[in-house]
Amino acid sequence: MNALKRKIIDRIKASGPISVAEYMSIALSDPEHGYYMTRDPLGRDFTTAPEVSQIFGELIGLFFVQAWEDRGQPRPFYFVELGPGRGTLMADMLRAARKVRPEFVDAAKIVLVEISPMLRGVQAETLSTVPVKWVSQFDDVPRGAPLFLVANEFFDALPIQQFVKSESGWRERMVASDGNELVFSLSSTVAIPESPIAIGDVLTDSILELNPTATEITRAIGPRFDEHDGVTLVIDYGYDKPALGDTLQAVKANSYVHPLAEPGEADLTAHVDFAALARASRSYVLGPIPQGAFLESLGINVRAGLLKRRNPERSTEIDAAVERLTGPSDMGRLFKAMTIFEGLDQEEPPGFDAACGSSHR
Ligand code: SAH
Predict the structure, then answer these.
(1) Which domain holds residue 348?
(2) Residue with the nearest Cα to atom 16 of ligand 1?
(3) Which of 330, 346, 326 is CA-nearest to residue 283?
(4) 21 lies in some domain
């Protein structure tokens, strides 16, 4: 048995079952054995869009340049990324931005929100030519200037709470121990999740998920925009309508494993509930729209065509990357993009034409 599983079982034996959220938080960020704390999982356990192709980050960079221009080119501004992984997205965004608007890069104060000391090291290498500041949580991002914020595959990595509808009402899903194994169980007392779905008629055994940290971060963005303006772009896999179901998943070496089998050794994530983010937001929202539609609207096909003309020997590889990012059975539909922005007398951020004017406050 791995050391972290031993530690969790000992803790459960001493003080009782822990919630799924606590379990996820320990498995991912235990300072000694947590999944993100000790390794660089990108490319080994899973591959994210920026790691698929430089085109992804370049288009997102141009998204932010456009949003910055539409807002009168504020200087300075905070260019913030939540959970930057290897720093690839930030590097690709800055390279594309520098080509079209060097002033954008000069005005950007880059802040990375990252808990993993190991990944901070990788980011420092990737971004060695630009000044970068690291913080551990969104709340520590400095205030006092407009905020341009991006989060790709970040919200799915935050601990979720799960609730199960039992005959006697909602109960929180817990993790208990059975000998040398971890097993799911239910809280002994009734727990009432704060969600519009929890009120309706729900079949017994249905699972409802909440992501309190994602909600808190989203709620904190609006007030910053009220003070200094800004645009947020969230891209992740998830669902756009309130829904029930168990989306907790563990991935190791590109294959699914049981979420309780190897804490600390598999990536543990849950699908993002975009409707919950939109409800928590206290600013204007567009989307979510499918990643495929978003990237097409930002001009992925034109950009791929250009790259292919310059590098004909890479044509097949470029076509494959575009298909992977936009294809409906690849990342094109399950992954979604949503923007939160200060919209009072301001342009809507680019790329959201498919969102059919769903901007609201
Ligand atoms: N955005 C990157 C990496 C996604 S993996 C990409 O698209 O390639 C998730 C990232 O979020 C990792 O960098 C991980 O260390 C970081 N992370 C996970 N939980 C976090 C938390 N609670 N606070 C800050 N960063 C976190």
Answers:
(1) 37-159+214-243+263-360
(2) 83
(3) 346
(4) no
